[in-house]
Write a structure and sequence with these properties.
Among the domains are: 208 residues, Beta-lactamase; 110 residues. A hairpin with a 2-residue loop joins strand 19 and strand 20. The strands form five sheets. It has an eight-stranded antiparallel β-sheet with strand order 2-1-14-13-12-9-8-7, sandwiched between helices. Strands 15-16-17-18-19-20-21-22 form an eight-stranded antiparallel β-sheet. The protein is built from 14 helices and 22 strands. Helices cover 24% and strands 22% of the residues. The protein is an alpha+beta fold and 506 residues long.
Length: 506
């Protein structure tokens, strides 16, 4: 039984909004002073003027720190609010899983059966195969699409799904074939939750997720955040970002939630401990379990219900077999990372007021200082690149975006020709360098990216990246694709913390 606390509040009001004038003692342990200074330095190296971080275990928040200032000039504190970007997905996943627990639908139910009036005009047959499970695990094959400025009205999510999403978006492959990160999976997941919860998404999250977990400083709408005096500014391309810089109701389930390191420590503790009054243990475990491989560095990285998991991490010393779960978030002006390491009963959260400020160095220093890395071990043999690259050679077609991809085996690498990118004067490296099993490193439009392959029945059938998917047996694209190549997804990274070149050294 859940207790609902905000039933009498108007949609944009907060009952007793938090304030920095309230006397609060934040956990602070001097043993972390050195790493705190290093974290601040690394955040500032990305241009952050504000930042906060916390370390927690299953029972308590062990340490918090913050730097910078609120807009009125007072010192920033660990209860400062930042946008958390795609970490929002894990919270949306919880709202959906709660309804699965209640028997409102199952993970195997098809979206088209739950919403008979919905149909994806450009991919009607593929849409009928789309299951709830596919949405939560990024197996939906929905083309990625996001804008940061959109409608802020509570009906914005339903209006978008019932209009733009089903009329203009499409599926780039049959659902369930492979993992491919895409924000619209979570627009649909949020729509599913609000339609079955009889509440707008923001109210549903407040009543079913944030309040039961004691996350009293976590909000969906920027108008709610502005009612507090606790928000931290961010910086994006030289511009100061505030709560009224942008908002988008239909993109909220994928990445627009606001929170603090204090509240996110509570979220991390839920992921570590579970709470059967909120979610059954088997479904909670599925959030951090490796349900579907992302095919990056072999089986090293996987995705569950709204969370990544990894079976190792690379440092300058080599590969360390550490099992951990995490999710990051990138949204203009803000970067988020949450990590939990269940076998060591510990977790960390970092919030930075800058773009793409993922703290690789500080994370490794912290893991080393806490003696969590252990001695480096040999990289598992099955993660190394294939010796025979001819299995990748051939012609692949992306009928929606980049068009034809011609690949040739040059023994040590693949040579690529992409005529449509040349037509639009998009620069690309003609060499795809083996990186790990079925994964290649290259550069397109100035972005270093990892491109994967998906094998079916002994044949490489798909070339995959968040920005595009091409099919070997697909038909050639039409003479005039409906739009220029959209490469906005190239800059996004789903694995900033596990990179380690798996090329076998002789």
């Amino acid at each position: 039984m859940f207790l609902f606390f905000l039933l009498s509040c108007k949609e944009d009001e907060i009952a007793n909004p938090p304030s920095k004038t309230e006397p609060i003692t934040f956990p602070n342990d001097p043993q972390y002073d050195t790493i705190t200074a290093a974290i601040r330095q690394e955040m500032e190296s990305f241009g952050a003027e504000n930042g906060a971080w916390a370390i927690f275990n299953r029972e308590e928040i062990l340490h918090t720190a913050a730097f910078g200032s609120f807009e009125d000039g007072s010192a920033l504190t660990p209860n400062a609010l930042f946008r958390i970007g795609s970490l929002s997905k894990s919270m949306t996943a919880l709202a959906v899983l709660q309804q699965v627990d209640e028997g409102l639908y199952s993970l195997e139910d098809h979206v088209s059966d739950l919403f008979p009036n919905l149909n994806m005009t450009l991919s009607p047959n593929e849409f009928e195969q789309l299951q709830v499970l596919h949405l939560l695990t990024h197996q939906g094959s929905l083309v990625d699409y996001t804008v940061v400025e959109g409608p802020i009205e509570p009906d914005g999510l339903a209006d978008f799904v019932e209009g733009m999403l089903t009329s203009n978006l499409f599926l780039i492959a049959p659902p369930g074939r492979f993992w491919n990160y895409s924000n619209p999976n979570y627009y649909l997941a949020g729509y599913l939750a609000e339609q079955h919860g009889d509440l707008h998404y923001s109210d549903l999250m407040q009543q079913r997720v944030f309040d039961p977990l004691g996350m009293n400083s976590t909000f969906v709408r920027s108008t709610q955040v502005e009612e507090t005096d606790l928000w931290a500014t961010g910086v994006s391309q030289g511009e100061t970002i505030t709560p009224n810089s942008y908002d988008n109701a239909w993109a909220a389930p994928a990445g627009f939630i606001w929170s603090s390191v204090m509240d996110l420590s509570l979220w991390g503790q839920f992921l570590l401990n579970g709470n059967e009054s909120i979610l059954s243990e088997d479904l909670r475990q599925g959030m951090t379990d490796p349900i579907i491989s992302t095919r990056m560095l072999g089986s090293m990285q996987s995705y569950g219900y709204g969370m990544f998991s990894a079976q190792g991490i690379y440092s300058a010393q080599g590969y360390h077999p550490l099992n951990w779960s995490y999710h990051g978030g990138d949204i203009p002006g803000y970067t988020t990372d949450l990590f939990i390491i269940p076998e060591h009963d510990i977790g960390f959260v970092f919030l930075a007021g800058a773009d793409y400020a993922h703290l690789t160095d500080s994370l490794l220093d912290l893991l080393s200082d806490l003696d969590l890395l252990g001695a480096p071990q040999p990289t598992p043999d099955e993660w190394y690149p294939r010796a025979d690259l001819s299995v990748y050679a051939g012609t692949y077609f992306d009928n929606w975006n980049v068009g034809e991809i011609q690949l040739e085996d040059n023994d040590t690498h693949l040579t690529v020709t992409m005529p449509r990118l040349e037509e639009y004067s998009v620069s690309y490296d003609p060499i795809w360098q083996p990186y790990s099993i079925d994964t290649f490193l290259t550069n397109i439009d100035g972005n270093d990216i990892l491109i994967g392959f998906v094998e079916e029945n002994g044949v490489m059938q798909y070339v995959t990246h968040r920005a595009f998917v091409a099919h070997r047996s697909g038909e050639a694209p039409p003479a005039a694709l409906p739009r220029p190549p959209d490469l906005s997804g190239l800059k996004s990274s789903s694995m900033p913390y596990i990179h380690g070149h798996s090329q076998r050294s002789e």
